[in-house]
Structures are given as C-alpha cells and as structure tokens.
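Dear support,

Our group has been running a series of protein-ligand predictions, and this particular one with zinc ion is the one our PI (initials K.S.) wants archived with full inputs and outputs. We had some confusion internally about which version of the output was final, so please treat the block below as the authoritative record. The input we submitted was:
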Amino acid sequence: MKFCNQCGHAVSQVIPEGDTRLRYVCGACSQVHYQNPNIVAGTVPVWGEQVLLCRRAIEPRSGFWTLPAGFMENGETMEQAAARETEEEACARLGNLKLYTLFDLPHINQVHVFFMGQLADIDFAAGAESLETRLFHESEIPWSELAFRTVARTLECFFSDRREGIFPVRNEALPPLRMQPPKGLST
Ligand SMILES: [Zn+2]
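Confirmed final output from the archive:
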C-alpha cells in the first residue's frame, strides 16, 4: 500500500499507540489501514461416485483443474460464498452443503474453506472463469494438473474419508512450499 484510500496522501508503516504490529498509517489524516486475511470459499460437488471439477480459464493457474472456489464477498455467509462460486464457475447448484475442510495459509494471508454438497442435477456447464467442467471418478482425478494445494488436499481427504464412510471437519495449517517442486507436483 502506498497511498491513503481516504485522502490520497502517502502512507507509512508505523506501530500505532497501543498496537503491537506495523500498520500502514496515513501521514495526513492519520487513518490506520488494517490488513487482514482473505477468505476463499469453495465446494466439493458430489454426484454419486463422482466429483465435479472446473478447468480454470483465468490466472493464476489457468488451464489447471480446481474445485469451484473464490474470494468471499462482503455481505454473504461463507456457505453462500461457496454456493455462489459454484454457480459462477460451474453453473451448478448444490444441496445439503456441509462444512468439510478449513486450511490456514498464514504465509499468504488466506484461509480456504470447502463445503461438501450433492449436485442437484447434472445440468452444469463452464462459467465465464472456466474452460470446461466435468465429473471425475477417483481414478480419473488429474492429480498433477490440480491448480491449488488446498484443492488437492481436500480431494485426498474426500476419497480417503469416503472409504471410511465418515467426513469429519478437517482443519489444517499448510506451511509455505520451501522450494519449487518438480514439474507436475506443484500442488
Ligand atoms: Zn489519509
């Protein structure tokens, strides 16, 4: 951040009185600009034995496969955000949404949350941000072409939990990737 969004003056990093962290503070109007984590909400759309994935049409990770997911908007619940992203990216509607995975990604200031739900029908299609959408059996999942680690981890959990027949809510913190992984293993 360089400029105050209240008055346009330059901001600088200081620790405000009574605070413990560096904040961007406006040199003119003294506005403190707090920065907080962003929440990504998504779904695991289930149809019988299969799961619906979308191939991304936009960066980052254009061309890679993902579960429907995106940034939560103001004024909506996390479940509404997950359902909206599923409608936008896969033109799909889900019933019986249930909280499933929650990942803390402190190194990029994000929290990713996935709900599991049953597809209402198979009348899905690629939305504006997707190249294609299709159902995958476990044996067909393109593990080396998944867009994000949290998507890969959620699918791993899903197929593992399905063998046990129970789907406990899972909360994991994912550490930063220390080095560039070999090609094809970037998730
Ligand atoms: Zn200002």
